């Protein structure tokens, strides 16, 4: 049998899976030789090492040299599996000497290949490289293509370790070609895995994930738990580098028991180190230190110097993170010494950078600069862009004490020049990623660069306000937040167009569709499990299944982008200040925030001016935001004054510096960090001593970024001067680019409503009839009336009444909150008031221009079908679900049962939303938490609001916290009366509706009216 053993690539041992044992057997029934072979093939390395050792002793005592050579060879394999590489080298060296004397080129070549692995794992890389070259020569002499492919794979690994990626890439590809030609699925999968590892090391993370996924499928087919564990571990590392900490943790926790099951102690140690890294990123420092210490103990016990060096470096990093500098220095110093002895330049660079950070913390700036410069040179030599980014930022901090544009010695790059270099590296790394969500997270992980750059420019502005530093700082702020969303808009639009191409491979199109369906199904299954009593094992299993489905979807999308690349988008240019000002009118002021340390910043931009103001540091603002959020979420209205006091305090903090300049203008808010959670309309006006909400003097809207707003506006005629035209929703004007009408502009399709879904199997509507009474049976777009309504009026409502005149009775449906956060999906209460809401809104629209889906008709299928794209306004009145541990998996809960009572998938997730093709001018999400989503540094909240904007909707109205069913219905009734009846814009109608409730004697508390915000263009 050819022993297809491989190499260590940056801390991950690569070798082929041994075939599973064909039957159940007992060690007592077999001689040591059979015990040794069976245990080795079954992956039980400890049993194999013991029985192989006994076989070797017997063979030596009986002077059977051929048997001794075989026994030593097998024992060496087992020792390599166990990570006892020094012992493996000794056993394999003796076996090689015996086989050289005995003859048999093939046996000698296979033993040599195994010895090369031990040498390489011990860090003796020059000897390992020479060993592999001799092994390759022997394989070619034998014309053994299988062995040649294995050795080529191993040579690729050693060149990767020696920071020679071009050579490594060539060897891996040759290996893949040979293994594919031979039909060797295991060998193919190993080569794919190693190619993924190489791409990961080069920062090409999407390419890495594609190769990993293909490899994992092969190992799964083979039933090879050893390699499945390896691949899961490395997929976790790639996601970790992309900023997916929770997803990375899930992959590592899935890999860890598999590694233990396979007896892979070396791999287990690697995964322990990776978990330490993840917990360090998640600020769980004590847990990170604990995992790093376990990894260190294991490495020392196995004589693994490289593992010891890496574990010590991690310990030093986390102790440094915990400000335990005296503990950190000896660990980092020892790690650096080991890296240099081994010749691991990549890790050496990282150790140097950590020591530089330690010296900077202790005030030794000159020494820190020397170490950082040395680290930067090494990062560049080994092509480590992420390390290069980190070190450039550190050097910029070290040189930021003086004028950021002037180097005191006039010899080295200035702080700003270093940051420019860092941004260039970040852009290059970003361009290597085809998946825009991965680009977003990669760039977001470099938030430190943008924040430091902006802080330095602000300091320069304070010294010299006339040199345009405030404008430059604003450009950097915009650059940090806008590029990823613009890329996402362009990429998803391209994906939709590509998926409908006639020349798209049908198999690839089917793969994409199936992957989307799998993600939807697994999302719902996970939520259903979390909704009931469940074990941690069930929850983890559901999470792993979902992540696997998401991974398959990402791979399918990557393959489409590979075959049909995204054209270079014109819209991704960051907007200039002059462009923004040219689109602002005198009645609007743009307020953009950057929340950071050691200070936060606020830019005020009008059609004629730009000014920047200093705000408190991030931790101070976060504390105030948390306090206000806690108060706003309380149902107990006896705490109303406390709620107002918190709103006054935060209003003074974030708007106080600009309050005297605002007049009564519209406020276009570009929030950042914790301010995404704040309803600015409810903040106390700093110009008033008593509580007067900003709402009283200002219309408030939210924008994801100024550049996104400019890009959207630039598509409107009169602003953009290029291209032919098409109709813009809500206007009679054309949009550049096409002559086709946009869905939604047809005057006969104004409003589509989905409300009052069926959540439970015991819903009385299912018990009464197999067909759900009270729902619309009409096809979307037809003129069927809403049951129980008329075009004149809706019973129980009055278009003139002030919301709140009919108080809810505690304990009734009016007290229900539209949120799936606090209860499980299985326990979601019916939203009776959402039906009243839908009927009241529908009554304001000609029956021929509306479509209302209630009960079972309010389904996911109705949303995903083609009908909704023809409506100008889409209204969803239902529960919102935002899982705390994975908010990106949140969404809207629609009907869980069809009209015949059969369970259906009723969860509309963020991924579903982003792939809708809509022509709507406005989407209203009348539910809880629907404006929230995962916080991505630099990108804000990727909630459903953002998802609908990606789908082409220019503005979205959504809620920031759990909202009461009855109060929401009243607010929405007034909003639509003012928007559809009085003709106010959505922003103006929302403000007017909120003012009416605020001025009512019974519901003036912000709890009732402040939750809803409008994101997008206010025109």
Describe the overall structure.
- By secondary structure, the protein is of the alpha/beta class.
- Helices cover 55% and strands 8% of the residues.
- The protein is built from 37 helices and 20 strands.
- A 6-stranded mixed beta sheet has the order 11-10-12-16-19-20, sandwiched between helices. The protein has a 5-stranded mixed beta sheet with strand order 5-4-3-6-7, covered by helices on one side. The chain has a 3-stranded antiparallel beta sheet with strand order 13-14-15.
- Strand 17 (935-936) and strand 18 (940-941) form a beta hairpin.
- Helix 7 (145-161) packs antiparallel against helix 8 and helix 21 packs antiparallel against helix 23 (469-499).
- The chain is globular.
- Residues 1-29, 402-410, 716-747, 769-824 and 929-942 have low confidence and may be disordered.
Question: Any key phrases for this structure?
Answer:
five-stranded mixed beta sheet, alpha/beta, six-stranded mixed beta sheet, single chain, 1019 residues
Strand-helix topology:
Elements lengths: L4 E5 L2 E4 L16 H10 L3 H17 L3 H18 L2 H18 L2 H17 L3 H18 L2 H17 L3 H17 L3 H17 L3 H18 L2 H17 L3 H17 L3 H17 L3 H17 L3 H17 L3 H18 L2 H17 L3 H17 L3 H14 L16 H17 L4 H9 L2 H17 L5 H31 L6 H26 L4 H28 L13 H7 L4 E7 L5 E6 L4 E6 L2 H15 L7 H16 L10 E5 L29 E3 L3 H8 L11 E3 L6 E3 L14 E5 L8 H5 L63 H11 L7 E5 L5 H5 L8 E5 L1 E3 L9 E3 L13 E3 H5 L7 E4 L9 E2 L3 E2 L2 H7 L4 E5 L5 H17 L4 H13 L7 H4 L2 E5 L3
Parallel strand pairs: 3-6, 6-7, 10-11, 10-12, 12-16, 16-19
Antiparallel strand pairs: 1-2, 3-4, 4-5, 8-9, 13-14, 14-15, 17-18, 19-20
Helix pairs in contact: 1-2, 1-3, 2-3, 3-4, 3-5, 4-5, 5-6, 5-7, 6-7, 7-8, 7-9, 8-9, 9-10, 9-11, 10-11, 10-25, 11-12, 11-13, 12-13, 12-25, 13-14, 13-15, 14-15, 15-16, 15-17, 16-17, 17-18, 17-19, 18-19, 19-20, 20-21, 20-22, 21-23, 22-23, 23-29, 24-25, 27-28, 31-35, 35-36
